[in-house]
Structures are given as C-alpha cells and as structure tokens.
C-alpha cells in the first residue's frame, strides 16, 4: 500500500503546475467574488447609486387653473370654494414630488438631474443614466382631481427604463414607498381622520442570539468555494487514473497480484492529503488576505481543522468512487462527464454555487446530505456557536459518506479477468 | 475533412451515453432550479411573549401574511429560537404590541428582504394606529384599503418607448443559463478529441496520410460544433414545444445558439492549446467552466454584479453575451439590430480564441 501511496504522491509532484492551479484557482475566485459582492451586501449604501433624469412636463400653474375651473362649476358657497383652492395650493403635488426627489437624505441613493425628454432618453439608451422619472403633463390636475373629487388618476408618474435591473427595482421601491406614505395620509384624510399624534414607529432591529456570531457573505464564499474545489480535487485524482489506464500502468499493477483495496487506498490517502492541504491553504490565505474570519481565536481553528479533515476524508471517498468509475468505463470522456455531473450536482444541491435557501425545502434537505453541504452547514454552525458537540453528527455523516463511497468503489472495482 | 468528421461521429453513435446524459442533465437542472425559483415561499416563524401573546401573534400573522412570497407562521417561542440557533431557519421574528425584533445571525440578502417587508407592515400599522386611535374598526380599514387601491399618487414603470416593461423572468434566464452551460461541457469534451487523437497516435498517422492539417482541424471542430449545436437545439425545442415555455422568435434564438457554439468551440480550442494531455484538459476545463456562470452573473438577477473588473472578465467569455442576447429576444422581442452587438462580440471572442488556440497547439512539441 505504501508503494501505491508513494506512486500517487509522485504523480502529483510531477505535475506541480496542476496542483498549483488547484490551489490558486479557488483563491482567485474567492477574491474576485468578495471584491464584487462585498460592496453590494455588506454596506449597501455605497453600492446603490442610481442616476436619474427628472423630466418636468407638468405646469403647476395650469394645473391649478384647471382645478379652479372644476371647483368653480361646483355647487358650493364661495368661502368653501376658496378653502378648497387654498388646500389644493398647499398640497401642490408637483412640489411634493420635487421635494422628495431632491431630498438631502435621498442623495445617498439617487442622483437626480433635471433635463428634457429627448436628452434623457438618449442618455438612458447609452447607459449613462439608469432611469427617467417623468412628471407628466396634467399631473397636478389629475392628482388634485383624485384627492378632492375621487376621479381616476389619468396621468400617473412614470419611470422609464431601458430594462429591468436591481437599480430599477430599488428606485421603484423607494418611490412607491414614499407614495404609499403620502397616499395613506390622504386616505386617512378622506376618512375624516388626521395624523394628530406622531405615529410611534417601530424600532425594529435585531436581537442577537446569545453566543452567536454573525455570518457574512465573505465567509459564505470562502466556505462554499473551498468545499466545491475540494470536490474537484476528487475528480482530478480520478482523471490521473485515465493516464494510468492509457499507459497500461494499471494492467501491470493487476499483473503483480496486488489487492484492489491497496490500489484504492493509495488513491484515497493521496487525495486526502491533497485536499486537506488545499483546504487549509485556502482558509489560511483568504484569512490573511481578506480577514474573512475576524476576531478569530485559537478555538475557531480547532473546529475548522476538524471540519476540514472530515471533508477531506469524504472527498477521498469520492475519489475512490470516481476512480472505479473511470476504470469501468472505456471512454475517458464519458467517465469525466459522469464525474463532472456528480460534482456539479453535489455543488448545486449543497449550495456551493448559490445559496440554496430560495429553493424548496426537499431540495434543501437533500443538500444537507451532500459532503459540501454538510461541511458548509457545520462551518456556519461552528462560526455562530462554536460548540464542539454540535460537530459530532455532521462529522460522522461525512465519515459515513466516505465509507459508502469506498464500499461502492470496492464493490464495482473491475475484476481481474475483465481487464 | 469528412472522414475525420465521420470517425468522430461513429465514436459517439457507438457510445451515445455521455451526450444523452448531458442533454438530460441540462433539462433536469433547468426544471429543478429554473422552475422553482418563482413559486417557492419562505416560511418564517413569528412568536410573542407576555400574557397577550396569542392575541398579538394572531393579529400580526394576519397582517404580515398579506404580502406574498413569505409565509409567516405562528410558532412556539422556544422552538422558533431553537430553529434559528441550530441553523434550521435563518430568521424568526419576535412580534410585540407595536414593535418587532428579528432573531437571526445571518447577514445574507434574503434576511434583509424579509426585514424590509416586516418593517413596511409595522410602519403602516403604526401610522394607522396614530390616525385612527381606538376607533380602529374593520369598516374604516376596508374603506382605507379601498382608497389605497386607487390613490392619488401613482407610478408606472415603462420602457423607453413608453410601453409596459416586461417582467424579468428569472426562470427563463436560468433556462438559457443552464442550456448554454451544459453545452460548454459537451463542446469541451468533443474538442478534447484532438488531444486524444494526439496521445493515441491517431493524429500522427493522419499527418502521414494525404489528409491536410486544415481539414483535420476543421473536421474535428465542425464535429464539435454540430454536437454542441445539436444538443442546444434539442434542449431548446423540448422547452419550447414539450414543456411549454415561450421562448419567442426561434430563428433568432437558434442563430444566437449557433454563434455561441462557434465561439465556445474556439474557447475549448484555446484550452486545448494551453494543456497537453486529454486528462489535463478534463481536469482544468471541468473546474474552470463552472466558475464562468458565477462570474458572469447569469445565476443572479441582472444588475447584481456591477463591479467593472468582474464585468470585464465576464465579457471575455461568450456565456454572458449569449444569455443576454437570448433574453433580449425572449423578453424584449429584440430585433436583429439589437442583438447584433452580442453576436459580434461572440464572433470576435471566437476568432481570437481560435487563432491563439490553434497556434499554441501547433507550436507545442510532441
């Protein structure tokens, strides 16, 4: 068995470029993803910056005149009419929207510039601006008509965009939230109620569960990518078997009357070493470069090493399975295809490509049975609580995964007479 | 050229397993991940404490569940806290008379979305309570809801031409993403036939024959193109006609698919140029390719990735252009003029990658 291990380690050593690639690629990806996403999810304010053109097509004076005409036709006393007009001028829907869009607090999110429509359309088309907010002709008259005469709104505010995107969603949200608040006030006014007392707004906020550290996007990327790439390692090792098959190394090994278990054990132990080193390397480097796990203690690394070890064991089991598949299938591409698909399937279900929370529960449950999913959830658990006893069950499941893969690998290992 | 093509085709006809597997896998993945994103609802536990706990819970359960996509369920306090603590749930909500607290330790975006939703409901209720005081009756609530259905201030989102904006359909985006993604693998594996021919010595024997080198390459590459394109056609047609997605103008979609295949064949050729043996190719290709959709952001709603460096890297691969062009056709009914840019970019990538790739293959010794 030792000679097999030596052979497999030598094979890695001969191909240092590849081993290096399997170490550097995940780190590169983690750095890239962090770079791209931290601005978005961690400190949202800096990332969301929406450039908007405001197009004024509404003339407030004309709108108020139109409204006055309508009021004039009404069968009311002169003083009542006067009061209505006063109220309307005070509400001034156009001013309301303008104040809102140029509000100081809004500047953190939205850069609004006034311009004419043709210019604005051009700029949005070129991608210089994200959206156009148009206050349409007749806006004042239509809003006032709705407030006082309950007419249907004919000229709503429009947001024109090139296509749907995150920015557009945020903008739409901000505008309609504001409108909801204002509408609610009008609505309450129409019921005869007024906002006499300031509402006691909910404080909201988060209650931190005792002894729980929070989990960040950077940690998710690191853990997800590390466990995904450890799965690729299993595939890498299995692909080495193709070379052994092609160069008849495997046939010669069979002739020496060695046991399949020994051959597989060589693969398993070398995979374990490679993926263990790979995982440790990824964690240490990302920690040094990005400080992914801030305020990290000696205690944290104990658990991390336990999880990494268990994951590496599971991965080595997977490599045994993959090796058998490659030995069994004559077409090396076919073998690689199947291995790739297994890895991608595990990666997706385990939530290494994207968080799996958005998917149905049965898929999430299934994901918790994949080695990478298990490693991810136990890492999450460990970061948050740091309880050693919580690691026992996922770790034994990872070991179970190894045993299962190893048994299947042994069972399907090609018999001597078939080679 | 044709004999080379035929030889490759024979190999795959004799063992069609891998091709069928990839076609099936890309359909299954799309159905699993693409079809599920919209209808899935998250369940969030709510609980309250104190003597009036049940009342408060009932009140907020009803109010909170007016919003879609999140299902708020009354849960026992201990169980709710335990679920969060054990990581079974991301978040639980402690509701009080007029306030709430999120119980979570996650800073993932979906928790922030839930927080936003809950906050809206509570703010609205606070305003209602301030205005209506104790006379908060069902009648008034109904009147107000009726009023809010057609309020004075309204906003409409439109396209630049003033038409209604089609909803961005994440399901369709994932459908294209997975289809093009799976095709990458098939194309890669078939292009790998070149390195395989080299290590098995077939390549050398062909060089000795009267077949020219150009036709050897074209034979292999045209074969890869055909297989990749065939796979995409099958998958897209199955989605359009058997599963009932509406993909829009099929002619344009297929042209985009063809151009995409072409440029992907070139990318695979570039990999072949860099790597020596088919095993190396398989290793590197299979671990690099799954990263491309992540970097290109095709798994996420558009606009999620706005980092210029990342966008630049994504632009180097045909995937983002292909998905973009197909989405434009399906969702925005784009004309030929509008999809010409992504098509041209894909062709450019194809030409460059092919040029460099073939050059590198030829320069290598052995």
What does this 3D model show about the protein?
- Chain A has helices at 2-14, 16-41, 44-47, 60-73, 78-91, 93-101, 117-126, 139-149, 166-190, 217-246, 249-255, 260-290, 298-328, 332-349, 361-367, 371-385, 392-412; strands at 50-56, 110-114, 131-135, 157-161, 206-207.
- Chain A has 419 residues and is mostly helical.
- A four-stranded mixed beta sheet of chain A has the order 2-1-3-4, with helices on both faces.
- The longest helix of chain A has 31 residues, at 260-290.
- With 366 residues, chain B is an alpha/beta fold.
- Helix content of chain B is 69%, strand content 7%.
- A four-stranded mixed beta sheet of chain B has the order 2-1-3-4, sandwiched between helices.
- In chain B, a hairpin with a 4-residue loop joins strand 3 (91-95) and strand 4 (100-104).
Number of helices of chain A: 17
Instruction: Characterize the overall form of chain B.
Output: elongated
Largest interface: A-B, 120 and 105 residues
Cα distance, first to last residue of chain A?
21 Å
What general form of chain A does the structure show? Answer: elongated
Give me the strand/helix succession of chain B.
Answer: HHHEHEHEEHHEHHHHHHHHHH
Give the oligomer, counting copies of the same chain as homo and different chains as hetero: heterodimer
Give the biggest sheet of chain A: 4 strands, mixed
Helix content estimate of chain B: 55-70%
Q: What value does the Rg of chain A take, in angstroms? A: 33 Å
User: How far from one another are the termini of chain B?
Assistant: 23 Å
Percent of residues in beta strands of chain B:
5-15%
């Amino acid at each position: 068995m030792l000679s097999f291990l030596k052979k497999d380690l030598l094979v890695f050593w001969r191909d240092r470029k590849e081993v290096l690639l399997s170490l550097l690629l995940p780190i590169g990806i983690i750095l890239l993803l962090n770079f791209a996403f931290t601005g978005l999810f961690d400190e949202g304010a800096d990332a969301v910056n929406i450039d908007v053109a405001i197009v004024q097509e509404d003339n407030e004076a004309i709108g108020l005149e139109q409204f006055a005409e309508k009021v004039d036709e009404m069968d009311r006393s002169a003083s009542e009419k006067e009061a209505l007009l006063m109220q309307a001028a005070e509400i001034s829907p156009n001013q309301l929207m303008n104040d809102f869009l140029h509000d100081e607090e809004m500047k953190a999110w939205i850069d609004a510039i006034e311009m004419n429509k043709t210019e604005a359309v051009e700029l949005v088309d070129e991608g210089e601006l994200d959206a156009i907010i148009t206050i349409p002709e007749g806006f004042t008259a239509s809003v006032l008509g709705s407030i006082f005469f309950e007419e249907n709104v004919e000229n709503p505010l429009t947001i024109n965009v090139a296509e749907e995107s995150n920015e557009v969603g945020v903008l739409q949200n901000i505008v309609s939230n504001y409108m909801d608040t204002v509408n609610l006030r009008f609505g309450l006014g129409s019921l005869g109620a007024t906002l006499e007392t300031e509402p006691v707004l909910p404080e909201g906020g988060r209650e931190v569960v005792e002894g729980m550290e929070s989990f960040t996007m950077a940690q998710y990327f690191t853990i997800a990518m590390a466990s995904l790439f450890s799965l690729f390692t299993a595939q890498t090792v299995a692909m080495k078997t193709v070379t052994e098959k092609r160069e008849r190394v495997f046939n010669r090994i069979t002739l020496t009357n060695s046991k399949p278990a020994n051959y597989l054990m060589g693969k398993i132990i070398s995979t374990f070493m490679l993926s263990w080193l790979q995982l440790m390397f990824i964690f240490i480097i990302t920690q040094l470069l990005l400080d992914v796990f801030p305020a990290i203690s000696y205690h944290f690394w104990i658990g991390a090493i336990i999880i990494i070890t268990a994951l590496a064991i599971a991965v080595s089991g997977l490599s045994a399975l993959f090796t058998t598949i490659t030995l069994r299938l004559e077409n090396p591409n076919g073998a690689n295809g199947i291995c790739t698909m297994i890895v991608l399937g595990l990666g997706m279900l385990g939530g290494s490509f994207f968080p799996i929370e958005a998917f149905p529960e049965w898929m999430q449950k299934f994901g918790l049975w994949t080695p990478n999913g298990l490693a991810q959830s136990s890492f999450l658990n460990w970061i948050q609580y740091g309880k050693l006893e919580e690691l026992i069950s996922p770790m034994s499941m990872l070991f179970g995964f190894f045993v299962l893969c190893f048994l299947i690998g042994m069972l399907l290992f090609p018999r001597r007479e078939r080679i | 050229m044709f004999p080379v093509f035929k030889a490759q085709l024979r190999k795959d006809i004799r063992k069609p397993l891998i091709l069928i597997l990839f076609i099936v896998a890309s359909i299954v993945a799309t159905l699993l991940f693409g079809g599920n994103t919209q209808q899935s609802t998250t369940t969030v536990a709510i609980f309250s404490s104190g003597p009036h706990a049940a009342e408060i819970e009932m009140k907020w359960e009803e109010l909170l569940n007016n919003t879609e996509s999140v299902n708020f369920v009354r849960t026992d306090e201990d169980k709710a806290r335990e679920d969060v603590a054990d990581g079974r749930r991301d978040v639980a909500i402690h509701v009080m008379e007029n306030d709430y607290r999120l119980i979570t330790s996650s800073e993932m975006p979906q928790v922030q979305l839930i927080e936003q939703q809950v906050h809206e409901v509570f703010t609205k209720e606070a305003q209602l309570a301030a205005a209506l005081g104790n006379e908060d009756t069902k009648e008034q609530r109904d009147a107000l809801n009726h009023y809010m259905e057609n309020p004075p201030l309204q906003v409409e989102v439109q396209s630049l031409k003033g038409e209604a904006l089609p909803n961005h359909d994440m399901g369709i985006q994932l459908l294209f993403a997975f289809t093009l993604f799976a095709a990458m693998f098939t194309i890669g594996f078939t292009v790998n036939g070149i390195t395989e021919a080299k290590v098995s010595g077939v390549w050398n024997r062909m060089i000795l024959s009267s077949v020219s080198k150009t036709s050897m390459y074209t034979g292999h590459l045209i074969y890869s193109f055909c297989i990749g394109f065939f796979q995409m056609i099958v998958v897209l047609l199955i989605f359009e006609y058997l599963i009932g997605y509406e993909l829009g103008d099929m002619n344009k979609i297929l042209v985009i698919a063809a151009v995409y295949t072409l440029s992907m064949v070139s990318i695979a050729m570039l990999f072949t140029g860099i790597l020596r043996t088919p095993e190396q190719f398989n290793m590197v290709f299979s671990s690099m390719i799954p990263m491309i959709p992540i970097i290109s952001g095709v798994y996420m709603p558009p606009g999620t990735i706005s980092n210029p460096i990342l966008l630049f890297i994504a632009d180097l691969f045909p995937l983002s252009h292909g998905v973009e062009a197909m989405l434009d056709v399906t969702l925005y009914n784009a004309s030929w003029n509008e999809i010409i840019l992504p098509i041209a970019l894909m062709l450019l990538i194809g030409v460059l990658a092919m040029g460099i790739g073939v050059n590198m293959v030829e320069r290598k010794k052995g």
